[in-house]
Amino acid sequence: MAFFSRLTDIVTCSLTDLLAEANDPRQTLAEIILEMEEGLAGAQRSVQTSQRTEQRLRDELRESQSQIEHWETQALSDLRGGDENAARMALYRKKESQDLAAGLEQQVRVAHTTSESLMTTYRALEARLAEARRRLDLLGGASTSSGTDALQATAREIRGREVEDELAELKRRMDHS
User: Fold this and answer.
1) Structural domains of the chain, with CATH
2) pLDDT for the residue numbered 159
């Protein structure tokens, strides 16, 4: 029996209510945990995909910005060489690159927001799974894990980087006060 049809169902579920309706709370909780682990693995894939998309867009944006500089330099060179038409064409290309960059900037912002949103959901799922595992332990059930060690290591690594970044920021603020 599937307990959740969407990942948000895991985040918003009431384990207490689900277990109150269960004939065998330990077995039900074990099944819920397996379903949560599958959802967490799917969420991790989504986070990784969104992060790769964001990075690809950032790379394209950098390339576009490089093209803007190239065409401006080319226009100056053409103008110095006395070729006003070539300079004009280079400026047209520069404008095209600027338009592309503006579109890419917008897409980078969207990709970043999506990535952050997926990461927030991932962490919420992880927290809900930890809660379910603690409850299973309290019920005397065997703790389950369906190969999420790598998943948990990735989450710890991400959280660790965030904590280190925040710690560095606190140190900077202390130094400036």
Assistant:
1) 23-145 (1.10.287)
2) 74
